């Protein structure tokens, strides 16, 4: 009897022990699934990995941010890790076609002056230049002023940047550009000084609005004759003051030396730009998408497609309030049908998909604040989750020196765009043209120019349900853009039948395409394949 009780006790203890073990095991298993470890961003500083790529990765994987186009979240089923050229070619033979630059037919920079080129002789006076417009409009104007100073034999005073336009940027020349390099690089072309001598009196100065797209005769005769009465000529505006064509080869080459060699960004901007480029390249080949969907662009162009009535009305009021914008009454439908409107973020996404770019393509958004923010970025974000901007590639502390200086922020976008594997502007504005020209100069890098007029018809058919996205659309888009990839060609002249200023306005701008003046077939005299000098 005692033995039976002992066995019952032992059996009961075994059951209790088994239950306890199972309970402990179950709790341990649940703790693994339910315990929430602190995210990377919440770890104490001594335990954080001090590497910016870790932070960028976490943002893309959605570990830190809310779901928004500015937070760069990538769904796990889409994100496949960084692309590389090697992975690209192995995974998809057609992939290299998306990234490989077009054949440049051995066109290389040739900007050295001819044997007949004369260095500056004794200066006849001083040329002051007050630039106007945004960064890239000012860049082109500065380079033209260098050439004009040489033509009229003037000492060029370092140009003043525009501080009164829409952008309201207080930056000085030396804040945006490397002033000393600019002066030294042009020593054999134009004498450049930082400030006008104090002894120059106001009675010796003249303000002049140079005629747009003027040639040698205008500057050598009308402008140079002013030296008889004045010691200082101030150019009130600098945009488009020099003709695109029919200038001596040495003057055209001087414009290229000024633009692509002398006018270097300030060291702090170059360093930050290089950092952004390196961080983009850590993901493999990338596209720089110049998404011109900012408030000022839409207000100026009068484009309202996909906008709400309230948004369209707000843009109209901005346009009417701006005295510098002469055209007030704009038919938005007519603008769009003629190809005069920038692609919307949704249209840009459809276009890139049709060209064959996969959903895990890294895309840098080269733009200011997108009008409407998330409400207009949803389609692009859903198709291409790896959207990045300055603010997602760099920390607040890294960008702080450039904050509130739109020209300096635009310079960062310019660097990342010039260095990108593919550049695609959604509108042919000043930055799009400047970057395209610079990429041509550096070896005709792939630059996709959307045929907006033709694309609008396709987009409308998709909206109306008359056309579906797929092979037909893709084949059509690829074929129609085969010759719009940045391959070498001579600069386009004026449109036939145009006269006067309309004739000059219809020409392709000099800085959009420096061929044939500054690009020659054969061995380059001064090849530099990057805008980054450090």
UniProtKB/TrEMBL annotation:
Keywords: Carbohydrate metabolism, Fucose metabolism, Glycoprotein, Glycosyltransferase, Membrane, Signal-anchor, Transferase, Transmembrane, Transmembrane helix. The keyword Transferase applies. It is found in: Membrane. One of its GO terms (biological process) is fucose metabolic process. Pfam families: O-FucT. Residues 481-493 have a biased composition (Basic residues). This is O-fucosyltransferase family protein. It comes from Populus deltoides. The lineage of its organism: Eukaryota, Viridiplantae, Streptophyta, Embryophyta, Tracheophyta.
